[in-house]
Amino acid sequence: MARAQALHILVQTREEADAIKQQLGKGAKFGDLARKHSLCPSGKKGGDLGEFRRGQMVPAFDKVVFGKPTLEVHGPVKTKFGWHLIKTLSRG
């Protein structure tokens, strides 16, 4: 079963996600922005979701984590929880 480790930032609106992504593009640290803005409890850990298997997250999230290049910020991605910026650290 495929496994991955990822970070994410969860916010309410696409506009918030776009603004945070711009800050990341200017060199802001993902973990710092996750701690400041993320609505998910993982925000306290810099957005770290730990290791998980394919199918444990909602489909739109899984699609990014298991299908897009690692170590890049992807999103905004819309799910039932809100808007995510996702950075996959490893996959195997």
Overview of this structure, please?
The chain has 92 residues and is α+β, with helices and mostly antiparallel strands. Helix content is 32%, strand content 35%. The chain has three helices and four strands, in the order βααβαββ. The protein has helices spanning 14-25, 30-37, 59-67; strands spanning 3-11, 48-53, 73-79, 82-91. The chain has a four-stranded antiparallel sheet with strand order 2-1-4-3, sandwiched between helices.
Secondary-structure map:
Layout: E1 3-11, H1 14-25, H2 30-37, E2 48-53, H3 59-67, E3 73-79, E4 82-91
Antiparallel strand pairs: 1-2, 1-4, 3-4
- Widest sheet: strand order? 2-1-4-3
Reported for the largest beta sheet, the result is: 4 strands, antiparallel
Uncertain stretches of 5 or more adjacent residues? none
The number of distinct helices, counting runs of at least 4 residues, comes to 3
Q: How large, in whole angstroms, is the Cα Rg?
A: 12 Å
β-strand percent reads 25-35%
Tell me roughly what share of residues is in helical segments.
25-40%
**How many extended strands?**
4
- The helix/strand series, from N terminus to C terminus, equals EHHEHEE
How far is the N terminus from the C terminus? 9 Å
